[in-house]
Design goal:
Elements (H helix, E strand, L loop, with lengths): L1 H10 L6 H14 L16 H13 L5 E5 L7 H18 L2 E5 L3 H7 L2 E6 L2 E7 H6 L4 H8 L50 E4 L2 E3 L6
Parallel strand pairs: 1-2
Antiparallel strand pairs: 3-4, 4-6, 5-6
Helix pairs in contact: 1-2, 1-3, 2-3, 3-4
């Protein structure tokens, strides 16, 4: 395992000798909660949570300020997800990292985010603080996404917005609102222009010529 964590240090020639590099690797392992006895383990000998911690240790190796986390908990069971999210949270508090956290899991997104950007077919369609976006979603795609979050209460019925139509090809996206073919509010004007992201109230941006 230690070679995996050391790789960014080796590629960037951070340390002149192996001993100081190993010290840094052990420090990184301690920061992400990996026991020193595991340093010679192979990834296939470790569970998903520990493998994810290796990835996090690698990302911290060069002391970044900004980290892109692309689906960091998607392949993990719920219990391990919570551990990894708590780890990321405590690392952020200690080292003041800025994260871009990419996820399809809206419950996780709500838990970790300060600001949320909703993307459809490669474009941001809505951007706002996490409380605002969950309380007052404006874009029809955001509304549909939020309506799909399961509610863990038997007596609560939720009106789910079912999207119809097909997702256009991302290789050749339509030359208008990319959501037009699936939007229940679509008007003729939506098929003629591409709506730009506009601030509709302080800190809340939406790319929709109708709902904004
Ligand atoms: S611009 Fe039109 S088609 Fe696009 S999201 Fe808004 S209402 Fe729907």
């Amino acid at each position: 395992m230690w070679e995996l964590i050391a790789e960014p240090l080796i590629v960037n020639s951070v340390f002149p000798d192996k001993d100081s590099m190993k010290r840094r690797v052990r420090e990184l392992m301690s920061i992400v909660g990996l026991a020193e006895r595991l340093e010679n383990s192979y990834p296939h000998e470790l569970d998903g949570g520990r493998r994810q911690r290796i990835g996090i240790a690698r990302s911290l190796a060069l002391s970044p300020e900004f980290i892109v986390l692309d689906e960091p908990v998607s392949a993990l069971d719920v219990c391990i997800q919570a551990q990894i999210l708590n780890l990321l949270n405590s690392l952020q508090k200690e080292f003041h990292y800025t994260y871009v956290f990419i996820s399809h899991n809206l419950s996780v997104v709500r838990h970790v985010s300060d600001r949320i950007a909703v993307m459809y077919l490669g474009k941001i369609v809505e951007l706002a603080g996490y409380k605002e976006i969950f309380a007052n979603p404006l874009h029809p795609y955001t509304q549909a996404l939020l309506s799909a979050i399961p509610v863990a209460k038997l007596d609560v019925q939720k009106d789910r917005i079912i999207l119809e139509g097909d997702v256009p090809s991302p290789i050749e996206p339509p030359d208008c609102c990319r959501f037009a073919g699936r939007c229940r509010y679509c008007k003729d004007s939506c098929k003629q222009t591409t709506p730009e992201l506009e601030e509709v109230k302080s800190g809340h941006f939406v790319a929709c010529g109708v709902c904004g």
